[in-house]
Design brief:
iron, single chain, four-stranded antiparallel beta sheet, alpha/beta, nucleotide-binding, ABC_SmlMolc_Importer, AAA+_ATPase, 8 helices, binds adenosine-5'-triphosphate
Length: 248
């Protein structure tokens, strides 16, 4: 199958044999299976501590699997280190190089590609245009607002055309109004570039804006995966309805 397949993935912490934390440890992700088709955007939604970030990190190769497989385009990624997966990562904040200007931040992911300066500058300009920051090339990072910084971070993450983009609460540090606007802009940028993506959030409105399908997680388990409309009209359980704000 093309795209991402997460098969029965389990992530446990503190299970080192002989560890003082005992044999059980914490099961952060418990036998989760999920597929993401090429060009699809899937959000992982759930309360703090439900295992969203652990699952994302396991897909990235940043966290070892205690069980299951992560497969991309039919290839099992076990043993393939983070930098060889050709996945992009974007986090909540603090990811830009503060001493580089906007152009050199966005160009960072292009440095390993053999591009002339003119080609690279053209790519940077296209990406900045895509995230609504045309002409910002020469701006210093500390002079940017929080929302502008996350737009630059998105442009930088998209620059090397990752085959999968993993976004971990990328808008959570921003105020609500800005978050709502940016969620729509992030979706537009992902759709326009045809980027396959997994977007972690604890905000159901944001998940519905950004994603084609939303996976609801609770205590390490994936409760339901469906299109936002379907989740609202046919939640699989009271717990799912609660996370979607359909119950008090
Ligand atoms: N490095 C670690 N060592 C031990 N336990 C961990 C570690 N990282 C996460 N956990 C635990 O695993 C569980 C899932 O954490 P995780 O960060 O994946 O959840 P989350 O849904 O992303 O939460 P949040 O929205 O607060 O970031 C939690 O109980 C957490 O305390």
């Amino acid at each position: 199958m093309a795209g991402l397949e997460i098969r029965d993935v389990t992530v446990r912490y503190g299970v080192v044999t002989g560890s003082a934390r005992g044999p059980g440890g914490v099961t952060a992700v418990d036998r989760v299976s999920l597929t993401v088709a090429p060009g699809e955007v899937v959000a992982l939604l759930g309360p703090s501590g439900c295992g969203k970030s652990s699952l994302l990190r396991a897909v990235a190769g940043l966290e070892p699997l205690s069980g299951g497989r992560v497969v991309y385009d039919g290839e099992d990624l076990a043993g393939l280190p983070v930098h060889k997966r050709r996945f992009g990562l974007m986090f909540q904040e603090g990811q830009l190089f503060p001493h580089r200007d906007v152009r050199r931040n966005v160009a960072y992911g292009l440095e390993t590609q053999e591009l002339s300066r003119a080609e690279r500058d053209a790519r940077v300009a296209t990406l900045l245009d895509l995230v609504g920051l045309a002409g910002y090339e020469g701006r210093a990072v500390p002079t940017l607002s929080g929302g502008e910084q996350q737009r630059v971070a998105l442009a930088r993450a998209l620059a090397p055309q990752p085959r999968l983009l993993l976004l971990d609460e990328p808008l959570s540090a921003l105020d609500r109004q800005l978050r709502e606007r940016l969620a729509g802009e992030v979706r537009a940028a992902l759709v326009e570039t045809g980027t396959t993506a997994v977007f972690v959030t604890h905000d159901h409105a944001e998940a519905a804006t950004v994603a084609d399908r939303v996976g609801v997680m609770d205590r390490g388990r994936l409760l339901q995966v469906a299109a936002p409309d379907e989740l609202r009209t046919a939640p699989a359980s009271d717990r799912v309805a609660e996370f979607l704000g359909l119950r008090d």
